[in-house]
Fold this sequence. Notes:
- By secondary structure, this protein is of the alpha/beta class.
- It folds into two domains: 138-407, Spore Coat Polysaccharide Biosynthesis Protein SpsA, Chain A, CATH 3.90.550.10; 456-749, Spore Coat Polysaccharide Biosynthesis Protein SpsA, Chain A (Alpha-Beta Complex), CATH 3.90.550.10.
- The chain contains 25 helices and 25 strands.
- A nine-stranded mixed beta sheet has the order 13-16-15-14-17-23-19-24-22. Strands 5-4-3-6-9-8-10 form a seven-stranded mixed beta sheet.
- Helix 1 packs antiparallel against helix 2 (52-88), helix 4 (146-163) packs parallel to helix 5 and helix 10 crosses helix 11 (334-344).
- The protein starts with a helix and ends with a helix.
- The relative contact order is 0.07.
- The chain crosses the membrane at residues 12-31.
Amino acid sequence: MLGICRGRRKFLAASLTVLFVPAITWIYLFAGSFEDGKPVSLSPLESQAHSPRYAASSQRERESLEVRMREVEEENRALRKQLSLAQSRSPSHHHGNHSKTYSMEEGTGDSESLRAGIVAGNSSECGQQPAVEKCETIHVAIVCAGYNASRDVVTLVKSVLFHRRNPLHFHLIADAIAKQILATLFQTWMVPAVRIDFYDADELKSEVSWIPNKHYSGIYGLMKLVLTKTLPSNLERVIVLDTDITFATDIAELWAVFHKFKGQQVLGLVENQSDWYLGNLWKNHRPWPALGRGYNTGVILLLLDKLRKMKWEQMWRLTAERELMSMLSTSLADQDIFNAVIKQNPFLVYQLPCFWNVQLSDHTRSEQCYRDVSDLKVIHWNSPKKLRVKNKHVEFFRNLYLTFLEYDGNLLRRELFGCPSETDVNSENLQKQLSELDEDDLCYEFRRERFTVHRTHLYFLHYEYEPASDNTDVTLVAQLSMDRLQMLEAICKHWEGPISLALYLSDAEAQQFLRYAQGSEVLMSRHNVGYHIVYKEGQFYPVNLLRNVAMKHISTPYMFLSDIDFLPMYGLYEYLRKSVIQLDLANTKKALIVPAFETLRYRLSFPKSKAELLSMLDMGTLFTFRYHVWTKGHAPTNFAKWRTATTPYRVEWEADFEPYVVVRKDCPEYDRRFVGFGWNKVAHIMELDAQEYEFTVLPNAYMIHMPHAPSFDITKFRSNKQYRICLKTLKEEFQQDMSRHYGFAALKYLTAENNS
């Protein structure tokens, strides 16, 4: 180490000599300016400067200095030659963990002043930074596991997409949960010039599971160590990001920094901005070894091809094994091991300016990374407190984060002009279907909605479900918008089984819902409720799309197709599970009808039994559902028979019948052409009948519709004549499709419609 320091001192001294000696000499000889048009004498004795007595000696001194100057120039030429030879020599390539040979240009030194000098050097714009090609693809790797991380990564992606001008290729190391969520999200997001590849994080667990880790990220917090093995062998470089990162600039600027790497530099990192690795945070604090303050791994530039040649896998494993003998476990996951490797091999690192990773944990020096808003590049919420972290400018940072959190993701579906995109079959099919529609058709917007792809985020909150051992479990399925959130707690109190909900929200409303749910003890105590966000787009409420999303993502063999405004009777969940067995739903095509009632009272003493419900029905506190405005919708249930029924009974389909039913999960989907108000459930029940489902009314089951203000869609239906005309047209087209699909058996629907 002493030899290295001496070598560096010689290098620095020689550099200073080359740079400063000629300058000082020339200044001394000729820059001594002129006073009153006369040259200033080189003699220090001003009073004798112009004396004839000293003229000859002054001339001799001048000649002597000129000779010395020429000698110095000769020495400088020799020094320059030496330096050029030293710089042209190839650095020694040491792959082992104990190599410490490096040059100043190859990485960070082990003193504070040298690190500061390198930061200044990295920030310098003296040399023209190579531009990123217009259509060059930027590769980004992110480790993402679980429900919360899948939600957090969306904000990161939004911030990157907002600023980007290049094609992007995201490499997501994800567990099964994150893959399901993010694959659906990106598939329905349909952002041009963005490619997504997934890598199974669960398959990588064996690579790092031998490392004890105390960090809250768990085993997934170690997986950045194995990216050289995980990512494609032909991928040369990648930007690696934590999920709690927010970009405030074009990621291409960071990608361009790869061009600054020299020699054996293979890791681009920002210095850690806390005192963690200095070991002075508390008494007996013993961090992993690090170079000075160490480096933060929230943002990493990896030269994968060179790392592989250096045998990175062997390097980090040997280092981890050695340090774990004394440290026993990591405290900061992969960051500890990266720093231990860098401590032994400083030449590996290129230190990024700290504005590429402004770390907002408590007690950091992050404020030194920026003087103005324009200095900010990347913000890293690397404290467990996240947005509650203490920082002088935290309000500004929080507002920037919230901007992307609530930003309409649909606006990021913009083309990169001049850059060819990969062929997307789904996008091509969509464009073809839309091109076949007549834009002059007065019902064009209705027809278009059927083909609209809505961005969908599955399992927005944590979800857990334990399958029932008897295979009789039933999921309640419903859909809602922001104005029905108040029903969630009540439904959860009435139904203890699993629930699948599709919520139609904007990005901002999704965050309001998140805050609402996290503030509710009732909702937070329930982990068997799947919340699936379908983001708003277009002018209609896509009611049947929402139902289909909720139906598709159930984990049980049966489902109860309900609506959010209904409260099921207490105990209905267990009653339905018994009915499934009793009526052999597993082996027969049955639709079990739960009779529907309604109240006009906002405060209702909910009936705890059928007898109590019948009493309230007789007193006028309750009514059969839509008795006053749409009798046909539920009349076939035969409420008169239900009053005295003790066993299930079969009923026949009739026109406009729309009961709430329990069916197997393999039942047909709802028809997407019906949006907003009207015929959305009627069409589905008609399809069930066409497929020869048997409608069976349950004698001891009931549900009650709670009052609410009229929806925007029913208001449009009632006030807009064209809306009603288009609905009638869609009904006729649906019936024609039924006839083509089911043939002669479907004629009864046309006849029934004409007679109704």
